[in-house]
Each structure stands twice: as C-alpha cells, then as structure tokens.
Amino acid sequence: MSNANSFKHLLSPGRIGSLETRNRIVMAPMGSNLAEASGHCGERIQRYYEERAKGGAGLVIMGVGAIAFPAGACNPNQVAISDDEFLPGLRAVADRVHAHGAKVAIQIQHAGKVATRDIAAGRPMWVPSVPELKAGDLFNDLTPEEVAGVTAYMAEPGARVRFHEMTHEDIAELIEMFAAAAERAKRAGFDGVEIHGAHGYIISCFLSPASNHRDDEYGGPLENRARLLVEVIRATRERVGPDFPLWCRLDSKEFRVEGGIAVEDAWRTAEMAEEAGVDAIHVSAYADPTCGVAFTDAPLVHEPCGYVELAEGIRKRVQVPVIAVGRIEPDEGDKIIESGGADFIAMGRKLLADPELPTKLAEGRAEDVRPCIYCYTCVGRIFLNDANCCAVNPATGREAEFEIVPAAKAKKVLVIGGGPAGMEAARVATLRGHDVTLCEKSERLGGTLYFSSLVCEVNGKLVEYLEKQVRDLRIDLRLGEEVTPQFVHQLAPEVVVVAVGPRYALPDVPGVDRSDVFTGTDLRNLMTGSDKSAAAEKLSVGQRAMLTMGSLLGVSERTSLTRELTRHWMPLGTRVAIVGGGLVGIELAEFLSERDREVSVLAEKPTLATEMALPRRWRVLHGLREHGVTLLTDVSLVEINDQGVVYTGADGERATVEVDSVILAAGATENTALAESLAGLAPEVHTIGDCSGVGYIEGAILDGARIGREI
Ligand SMILES: Cc1cc2nc3c(=O)[nH]c(=O)nc-3n(C[C@H](O)[C@H](O)[C@H](O)COP(=O)(O)O)c2cc1C
Ligand code: SF4
C-alpha cells in the first residue's frame, strides 16, 4: 500500500524562476485538437484543462499555442495565440486552472515543415532549408480510410505541399511572433510560457543538422543553428520582463536520424538557452517523422523512463531546473527527483488516463490511479486529425458529457460479466447511487482483458485498477455465478446489463477440430487455468500434469508468473500459425515470437491490426517483422491438415504454411443470445462491450461508462 510519503519528493513544492508550484507534477504539453476550429478556447478545452488542475497537478502546460495562426499550425482544432482576439478564451483557461490551485503555462509553437494547415491553404511551409522528401513507411500499414484521415488537409481545395526557405525578414518576423505570443499569454493570466524548441517544429528544424542546410549565420555549426532559439529567447525575455517564468522544450536527441541532433549538441544548446535567459529546460526528444516505429522512440516513448538519462545529462550542465518527461511512473519520478536527476516530472498520457493522479498520490491512494496502458489511442486520434481521447478514460476530451452525477432514482441493477465493460458499468452505476449486483461466471474478474494482460503486461494494471474499484464499492459481487433466466427472475432487477464478451465463430473449413488447433478461447482457458475440460483434452498427460501443478501453485492466477512460465513451456509446437490478423492475432504473434516460436499470421484483410492505434500498430508490426514473423494478408483459408494450413493467397495461388500448431484468432462477433433469453425479465435489458459489437478495451470501457451514466 502506498501513502503520501511514498511520493514525498514528487509532491514537494517546486519553483521555476518566480513560479512556485504545489508539487513537481507537470502536465506535459499535449496538442488536444479540442479548441474551436477558429483557434479560440471554448468550453470543451477549458473544461479539459480545468479537470487536470482539479486533479492536483502542480503545473499545467497547455499545448500547443500557434503563434502565427492559422499559418504555422498543425492541427485543425489547434489553440491560437496569434492575436488579441484569442485572449478571452485563453484567459478563461487560466482562470479555471487557477481556481483549483494549479499554475498554468502555454507552449508556443510554429510548426514549420509540418504545418499541415499551411498545406491545406496552399501556403508554403517555413523551413530553414528545403527538405529532401523521403517516402518513409508511414502509410504502409494503414487502411485507405486511415490514409484519408491522416492526410485530410490534402483534400482541401487548393491544398499543396510547398516549402519556403526562410529569409532574414521571415526570421525577424518569427521572433517577433514568439515574443508577442508570450506577452499575450502573460496578459491572459498565464504563469509562464514554454517555447517549443523540439519535435521537428521550426526551432528544432534549425537546431538539427539533418534539416538545416543553410550557409548563413543560422546554419552550419551548432552556435549558428541555435541562433534562432537564442534570439527567440532573448526577444521573448525582453518582452515579458525579467521575472516572468519562461523556458523551452528541447530535443535531447534525434532517434533514427542520420546526422541528427546528438546528445552533446543538446547539452550545449541547453547551456546556450540558459545563457539567453530561460528559467528551465524541458527535456524531450525527436525521431525520424517518416518512419512509423520511430514515433514510439520519440517523442512518444514506449520505453519506460526512456529519456531520464538524457534529462540527467542536461541537468548536470545547467543551473536552472530541468523538467523530465517520457513514460515516467510516479514511483520512478519520485526517485528521479530525490536523486537530483531532474526537478520536475512531466506526465502526458498518465494525466489523460487519470487527471486525479496527483491528488490520489497525495491521499495515499496510488492503487486507485487509473493506469495508462500505453496503447497510443490518444495520439492516434490526433494523427487522424481528430480530438484527443483516452481508451481507459472516456471522460478525456468529453469531460462535461462524462461527469458522474447522482441518479434521480436509485435502481436495482444486475450487471452480467466481469470484463472491463461490466466492471466500468458497475462502478459508474454504483457511484451514481444504484444498487448493483455484478455476476461473473468464472472465478476471476477481467474477462478477455485478463487474458490479454498475459500477452500485454500493462493491461494487467487496468484489470487490477478496475477490480479494486469494484471490490471497494458497495457492489454485490458474485464470482462463479452463471446467470440464468431463473436467477434474473429471482433477483428481479430493474435494469440488466449484459457484458459477457463476444462469440467466436470457427472458420468453415476442414480441420478446425484437430487436436493441434486451438481457438483463442482454448488458449485463454489453458493459460489462465479456467477450463480443465475441453481445451485440456488436447494436451498430453505430461502437459496436463504441468497445468494442474500450475493451478495448485496458483501460478495461473498470477499473470506475471504465468507469463514467465510460458517462456519455458506452452502447449504449442515450435512452428505456429495464427489465423487472424486483428489485434488479438497480432498481440499473440508478438507474445509467441518473443517465446521463440516460428510464427506465421494469416489474415483475411489487406491491413493488419486495424484495431490498434497507429503508433502502436507501427511498433508491433515492426517488431514482428524484425523477429522474422511471416505476415500474410488477403488470404482465404482452405483447410488445416497434417502439413499445416492451406490457403489461397492474394495472387489466387494455393499454398501451405507448414506448422505444428494452429491458433484460430479471428471470428469474434457480437453475442446477444443471453440478452435475448432475458428479454422481458426486467424492464430494461442492455448489451454492452464486445457482446454488442467488438470494440476491445476502448469500446468496452466507453460502453460501460455510458450505460452506467444512462441508467
Ligand atoms: C495526445 C498527445 C499530444 C501531444 N502533443 C504534444 C505537443 O503538442 N507538444 C509537445 O511538446 N509534446 C506533445 N506530446 C508529447 C508529450 O508532451 C510528452 O512528451 C509525451 O507524451 C511523453 O510523456 P508521457 O509518457 O508522460 O506521455 C503529446 C503527447 C500526446 C499523448
Ligand atoms: S489512450 Fe492509451 S496511451 Fe493514451 S492516455 Fe489513454 S491509455 Fe494511455
């Protein structure tokens, strides 16, 4: 159990120049796409930031204010700070954040070579020097609809990709726009300003030797490449005065970019920024923007504490405070501050998943923090030019819609199914005052999410969180209870919510019932030890004995141990075919290839893992290809026989993948049979989650949250 003392360094007050914060937790700047299309801050974005302040963050950095709006902007609903007309909305954000005791800054930016609103308008994008266009692999694993979503700006009449090498006059104008925007932020009541000097936007483009090929005093050696940053800082400092908190975000490194920003460059740049007058350095990183997997190296790092060492390196070289960022969990953050590695910890995704994280830590309720599962759904939406959201927290970006308000009349509610949809529905309905019974036919909560946590470890934290909420609340929890019409009749609920997960349809080909063919359900039951009959019959005596031992030891109850056990033994041969290229099949392929299986995936559709948000899909598919997994798309299954899986490929030719075991990981469809059998037994019967149409974690939790509020 945690207590507030467990995070005493993270929760201790901090200071950036004249800015004092109640703790060291900073909400990282995130473009939310929640402003109005006009660039104004309306109710939706005001509420979004207010919620994070209310949740206890010390400093909220609003992302990302366009200084030349609509020029130099990169999202359709980006915040503008280019004119006084935007002041009222900005002031409202500042006031609403202040009302909850947090401090607020705004990150100011010009997007330069990725200013998609310039493309949409046919305006040339400002760059230090015209870049060489590189094809990259960004679109390789996208559906045509996703390609259209990502490149929506190209559909505007007059859209054109053009670059403009900035002249000295342009540079002077840019510097003036930064200074004016900062001064505007000060007038709007913001407590500080962060100059965006990272992530491939204009300043970082000048800083990077890979994108700055100028031969004047703004190009060449580092001192020249950093000139724009230094001049922006000086001009802004002069405009906002010596005491106004001002800092910059920098790339500590460019990953996968030949000749990009090196760690030593970043050290020296940070020193120059300090000399020019910043009060802090925010240490991020960047990577090749044309390479899908690179995005999960930077800026949205997949690796826990991925940039901490880089932040520590900079902190050794500057006197001003350093803000570290990049998948830093609170316990790690506390240690980093204690050891002097950084002065503040910025959290992005964790505060989308749970804005109340700081308050919960302070109240000694760390176990009640809703965990981020690093699924990239949030930023995947931004890629598609949509609004920010969170797969595990439906309220993110829709704060008003998902407020929990007491029910007008308390009702007796029966929730059937203890997966994420059922648990979230039970949680929300109970918080609203309903009298909830939650029945789960197996002996444990989590449903398919429990199994997916074997494959994808971080999902286990979500199971733990939901389970804790359900157990802590006044919910009548009945495990091992298979609900029948008689049961419902006796309980006499006013509302029944069916959340029993999907139905799996087997492919209609010969061989699906062979002993070396496992369905997803078989595998789940074997690995979680939930079914000792049907699936176990496919095992040898020795294998069955091992499983029994596992359950006696409680191994299958504990996902981390089960995961470890599966590194040494699994009821599958060396060569495995997975039929199904959706999220489930691809996650399984990752899991098995990491366990030295030779894996082939056979997918009916042309695009793999379409349910995975883009950056995650890029990462996982890249990993599979590196592991030598065979990925076959556009195939039709013919049969499963002694040799393996026979299929017809995209070219119409018949072929066989020779394997020892086959897993059928496709065919999940809606499952309304139980709900239908209960019709008429209660005034309201609802189906949610995968049994009403497969929506995985995001869909399940969203459905649960919705129905919990509607009852
Ligand atoms: C949806 C989303 C939007 C983001 N937009 C920005 C941005 O506009 N400016 C920026 O500097 N970083 C942006 N980031 C990066 C975050 O500030 C942060 O550096 C990154 O998410 C790593 O921190 P985390 O692991 O705590 O999420 C964004 C991140 C997310 C998830
Ligand atoms: S969408 Fe996924 S990655 Fe983003 S904050 Fe939510 S859980 Fe984390």
Summarize the structure in words.
This protein is of the alpha/beta class and 711 residues long. Strands 3-4-5-8-9-10-11-12 form an eight-stranded parallel β-barrel, surrounded by seven helices. A five-stranded parallel beta sheet has the order 15-14-13-16-27. Strands 18-25-19-20-21 form a five-stranded parallel beta sheet. α15 runs parallel beside α17 and α16 (447-455) runs antiparallel to α17 (459-472). The chain is globular and about 75 Å long. Iron/sulfur cluster binds at residues 349, 352-353, 372-378, 390-392.
Return the average pLDDT rounded to an integer.
Answer: 94
What would the CATH topology of the largest domain be?
A: TIM Barrel
Question: Looking across the biggest beta sheet, what order are the strands in?
Answer: 3-4-5-8-9-10-11-12
**CATH architecture assignment name of the largest domain:** Alpha-Beta Barrel
Short description:
With 711 residues, the protein is α/β, with parallel strands linked by helices. The structure holds flavin mononucleotide and iron/sulfur cluster (SF4). Flavin mononucleotide binds at residues 28-31, 63-64, 107, 196, 198-199, 249, 284, 299-301, 325-327, 347-350, 378-379, 382, 388.
Describe the structure using short key phrases.
single chain, 711 residues, alpha/beta, TIM Barrel, Rossmann fold, FAD/NAD(P)-binding domain, 3 domains, eight-stranded parallel beta barrel, five-stranded parallel sheet, 25 helices, 27 strands, globular, binds flavin mononucleotide, binds iron/sulfur cluster
